[in-house]
Amino acid sequence: MTTTFYLVRHADHDRVGTVLCGRMPDVHLGSVGRAQAERLAQRFGDENVAGIYTSPLERAVETAQPIAARLAQACQVCDAISEIDVGRWSGLSFEVLNQDPLWSSWNSSRGTNRAPEGETMLEVQARVVGAMERMRNRHAERSVILVSHSDVIKAALLYHLGMPIDAYTRIEVEPASTSTLVIGDWGSKLLRLNEVVAA
């Protein structure tokens, strides 16, 4: 019994690459991101999908909605696949963060450091992998779409690839990308990584 997971990173918003948004509210897709979301909807148009799950954050929901509309399904909000909680760093620019020694330590060893008043990557990994296991039992022999965030997707992939959490820099998860993972009682297999639909 296997379940196929399409791990989709939310599409572009105007702060990608400049601000660590974390869980800050009101981060919406820009015009580029809305076009990416529509291309994702086309990409999944012929898939037989049992469920569409999304992080509760606006940028993820706005990415999931065109997919759900194309497949005539409802989006299900899943807190367990929400963005990593970066605590006091949320909303800071990367220019500011690069001056913080704790930011440097956190990025060099995600396995042993925690964002201030936030989560560790291992805590993120535990919640997303746990959620996927519950979905696997619910959707045996089916496919599901999870619309989430870069670090959350990386944490899930690292677990299923048997790699340490600090290997997160070895995996690229671009906005509006899809990584496809098959999970069964026998283990798991990565079929595709960071697939992006061309404009």
Automatic annotation (TrEMBL):
Name of this protein: Fructose-2,6-bisphosphatase
InterPro entries the UniProt entry points to: His_Pase_superF_clade-1 (IPR013078), His_PPase_superfam (IPR029033), PGM_Phosphatase (IPR050275)
CDD domains cross-referenced by the UniProt entry: HP_PGM_like
Short name of one Pfam family: His_Phos_1
Top-level lineage group: Bacteria
One Gene Ontology molecular-function label: phosphatase activity
One term under GO cellular component: cytoplasm
